[in-house]
Design a protein that fits this description.
There is one protein chain. The chain has a single domain (167-728), classed as TonB-dependent receptor, beta-barrel domain (Maltoporin, Chain A, Beta Barrel). It has a 22-stranded antiparallel β-barrel. Strands 4-1-7-11-12-10 form a 6-stranded mixed β-sheet. A two-stranded antiparallel ribbon has the order 2-3. The protein is built from 6 helices and 36 strands. Strand 17 (253-267) and strand 18 form a beta hairpin. The chain is globular.
Length: 729
């Protein structure tokens, strides 16, 4: 990978009367990755606009993956969440080929704050097949910032974990009386799965207006597992993304409008009973920024419409014509307003407000001739809404050149409600769902949560080459629509719910309380300069979650003969949980050549312990100890890299969900690239030794189970020869 940098950063925004925004402070340390290309701010006439994904106060652990790295990583994976797993403390629930669910320090996708260009994207599927990162193609992302430690309240509410911030790039303008036409083209091919794709980005601009198009396409057949694992069914996919953005510099600020579409005609899910047979989504976002003598203002408005379809692809025995159609419609809209006031040379105060509206309808059309799935439409979620109004205040103080503090408080009001539901019919075979629907419809569906959060961050440069960071946060997350409002008690209905990839059935709970998490995280960073600069960071953390939304067992699922089939039915329930661990990362320059070439080595390691304190059992899908070693060499025309990733046995598993144990493994990846006249050709080999392994959070291989009757963890991808070609103009 060309540039993954872990940084401790201090940004302090200051505004002057000539409407220029300067980012004061420096990125102090680059850790963890073999390369360290610092991301530069986008230059505009009369102003310097940096990536807005980062607030001025940056918490202790901050990782930035740059565009060059993402371009090269796209030759190996179209899954943005999978690319992030190279960072310490970050893992991913296995899912479809571009839809894995990120996990930060044991807290999964729904608990992590994920923003794409500052906007939250809602899940629109009972199996979470279209999570936020599935709308962010690594081929067209400018940068990704990952915060694994405590994040400030200004970064968003309704989350209790870390944060992932996707930045697709700020507009660039030409100098006065000039025009520019710039862009990039790229493509890739992967031998394993016969995957291929490409991307294009084109910008036309003068000193006042910017018009930018970005588009990408990717597809793959089923991949082969390592060694003798053979084909892994339900791993095919295809996806197309397009966006068009217009920006204008005016006397009253910078205006931006961006719209786009995504279409995925199919995506297999090896660890789900269903597949995605269509996903159509379009969005329209607007933004206004202005810089005044008294402060700066940033206002966004956003809308997204998603139409999602599930059924069985061929590997699971069907197509959308028949099978078991399941449809979901989601509309999201809202705004975010941020105001920053530099009240003194030392102090900056920030205020913010945001509104997020989510409307969701989930219904399953009847199947002609089926006694189980008819004669009526199954109403899983009836026009549910989840509305959140958040406000916050934050104070940053730069006490000395070596000590900075950031304190914030936040409130999020969450209102939820939904309509009545109905089962497929009224036959004796549907009695469990008939009774459950009657009980659900008789209950009060409305819920209102008033959630208070707070954060405190300290950064201290203790001495030359030693930096200390400490953060504390109390944060609250309300249940999502599926956790609260799914109601089916029949075996078939409940197994259609769940994003965990375990084959079990899940039932919602109207009585769920919000999760309340208290987190303490810190980091000590050592660094050295000279001809061979180096860094080392040690970052421990502890999180306690009251009313953690886990599960309780309702009973065993059975087959048509009434015999247990190895899966269980579970209901979401509030428990108590604790997470603690440590992330270690280091980076060193080995040598520098006279012609500008340099060699670097990087190390990452993570250890995590997650415990259900109510049941005194391990929590589900927690990563054991894992480590990575990276070496790479860069020269003016060519580059090369080698990677080793290793994990230990996963023997701490959740007995309630029948989580399987998996074995330790180590993977080796090699790659090289050559650049001539602005065109780069890359060649790399993933899983060099074709190692057979099961990703530890990959779930059960249900696609294979349907075809063979043998249940096994999802096998990892075997050896693949990958080619990439890219240029800029």
């Amino acid at each position: 990978m060309t540039s993954i940098s872990l940084m401790t950063s201090r940004f302090s925004g200051r505004i002057n009367a000539r409407h220029s925004l300067s980012l004061i402070g420096a990125r102090l340390i680059a850790l963890s990755a073999p390369y360290a290309h610092a991301q530069q701010a986008t230059a505009l006439p009369d102003m310097d606009v940096g990536s807005d994904a980062l607030p001025p106060a940056v918490p202790p652990t901050d990782a930035t993956i740059t565009r060059d790295t993402l371009k090269q990583a796209a030759s190996r994976s179209s899954d943005t969440a999978d690319i992030l797993t190279r960072l310490p403390g970050v893992s991913a629930f296995g899912a479809g080929g571009f839809s894995s669910l990120p996990v930060i320090r044991g807290l999964d996708n729904g608990r992590v704050g994920i923003l794409v260009d500052g906007v939250k994207i809602d899940d629109a599927c009972p199996n979470n097949m279209n999570p936020p990162l599935s709308y962010a193609d690594p081929q067209t992302i400018e940068a990704i910032t990952v915060i694994t430690g405590v994040s400030p309240v200004s970064m968003g509410g309704d989350t209790i974990g870390g944060a992932i911030l996707i930045d697709t790039g700020d507009p660039r303008f030409a100098k006065q009386d000039e025009t520019i036409l710039t862009g990039s083209l790229s493509g890739f091919y992967r031998s394993n799965g016969d995957g291929f794709g490409g991307a294009a980005q084109v910008t036309a601009a003068n000193d006042k207006f910017n018009l930018t198009y970005a588009g990408s396409y990717t597809q793959s057949d089923n991949y082969d597992g390592g060694g003798k694992d053979g084909v892994v069914r339900s791993t095919e996919y295809a996806k197309t993304d397009h966006s068009l953005a217009l920006a204008a510099q005016t006397g009253i600020g910078l205006f931006q409008v961006k719209g786009g579409t995504q279409r995925s005609p199919y995506e297999g899910f090896p660890n789900q009973r269903m597949d995605m047979t269509d996903n159509k989504s379009w969005f329209l976002n607007g933004r206004w920024q202005n810089w005044f003598a008294w402060g700066d203002v940033d206002l966004r408005v956003h809308y997204r419409d998603t139409d999602h379809r599930m059924n069985f692809l061929a590997d699971k025995g069907g197509t959308e014509d028949g099978g078991m159609p399941m449809n979901t419609e989601v509309h999201s809209a809202g705004y975010t307003l941020k105001v920053s006031l530099p009240v003194s040379q030392r102090d900056t105060v920030r205020f913010g407000s945001e509104l997020h509206h989510e409307w969701l309808n989930d219904y399953w059309p009847p199947v002609a001739g089926s006694m189980m799935m008819g004669p009526n439409e199954f109403v899983n979620v009836n026009a549910a809404h989840r509305d959140r109004l958040g406000t916050y205040a934050e104070w940053e103080a730069n006490w000395t050149g070596d000590l900075t503090t950031t304190l914030g408080i936040r409130n999020d009001q969450v209102w939820m409600n939904t309509g009545d539901v109905q089962p497929y019919g009224n036959s004796m075979m549907q009695m469990a769902d008939i009774q459950a629907a009657a009980a659900f419809n008789a209950a009060d569906h409305s819920a209102h949560d008033s959630n208070w959060s707070g954060s405190a961050l300290i950064h201290y440069q203790a001495a030359k080459g030693i930096a200390l960071d400490l953060g504390y946060a109390h944060k609250v997350r309300s249940p999502n629509i599926y956790e609260r409002y799914t109601w089916g008690r029949g075996a078939m209905a409940s197994t259609m719910i769940g994003w965990f990839g375990d084959g079990n059935g899940y039932v919602g709970n109207l009585n769920l309380k919000p999760e309340r998490a208290d987190t303490v995280s810190g980091a000590v960073t050592f660094s050295g300069a000279g001809d061979t600069p180096w860094t080392l960071r040690i970052a421990p953390y502890l999180t306690h979650v009251a009313d953690y939304i886990d599960v309780v067992k309702l009973g065993d699922l059975t087959d048509m003969m009434g015999m247990p089939n190895g899966f269980v039915q579970l209901q979401f329930a509030n428990r108590e949980a604790r997470f603690y661990g440590v992330d270690v990362s280091g980076d060193a320059t080995l040598w520098t050549d006279a012609d500008g070439g340099s060699a670097r080595i990087g190390l990452t390691a993570s250890w995590l312990h997650g415990q259900n304190l109510t049941d005194d059992d391990p929590l589900y899908h927690q990563m054991p100890f894992n480590a990575g070693l990276h070496f790479d060499y860069t020269a003016p025309r060519w580059d090369a890299h080698a990677e080793l990733h290793a994990v230990t046995d996963k023997d701490r598993v959740d007995p309630t969900r029948n989580e399987p144990r998996t074995n330790a493994y180590a993977l080796v990846n090699l790659g090289a690239g050559y650049t001539l006249k602005g065109v780069r050709l890359g060649v790399d080999i993933s899983n060099l030794f074709d190692t057979a392994y099961a990703p530890l959070l990959g779930g059960q291989s249900l696609g294979d189970f349907v075809a063979t009757g043998v249940l096994r963890p999802v096998p990892g991808r075997g050896r693949s020869f990958n080619l990439s070609l890219g240029t800029k103009f």
